[in-house]
Amino acid sequence: MLAPSADIVPMRFASVGDEEGLVSLLKLRHDEIEHDPLHEIFSEPRVRETIQRATQPRRNHADAGESWCGVIGEPGNLQASVYLSVQTSWSSDNRALFELWNYIHPAHRKTVDARLIVAFSQGIAEAMGLRLYGAVMLLKQHPGYMRLYERQGCRVIGSFYVYDRAGLPAGVH
After folding, report:
1. How far is it, in rounded angstroms, from Cα 29 to Cα 151?
2. Which residue has the higher pLDDT, 85 or 110?
3. Is residue 99 part of a domain?
4. Which residues have a Cβ under 8 Å from the Cβ of 52 and sit 6 or more positions away?
5. Is residue 84 within 8 Å of residue 98, measured between CB atoms?
6. Are 116 and 123 spatial neighbours (Cβ–Cβ below 8 Å)?
């Protein structure tokens, strides 16, 4: 059952003061997704650089001013976050809004946070007149997230796959 509406914490744009909380939340996300710590090592400087592209839009970066990070919660106690960036795909000059992450702290997964994040992302896409692309990366919650996106008006157009020959068990080629 979802938390009652009185418990809803509003979605907001992340600010510079959210950086530490975001780093902690994204480390938790990384640890939940990656089961082999040698496969993809968490890079705190890289994570901070990405966060700062949204919280400091005047930075000297190609997507500065065209990236947004939405959060739920107070600085130092973030419940959830989404990161959106305007980009083009490899096959088109058309710009689109790409979701780099969408993560809810495990303690807040039985709330309306996921709906708020999807609505926040859709609102930015609609305001900009852009198509929104995202991917579900949590295997345990994958079916639930897929149903949520479909109920929120999104359609599935593919899947995200990862192949890692180095991560295959011995004897598998």
Report:
1. 24
2. 85
3. yes
4. 19, 59
5. yes
6. no
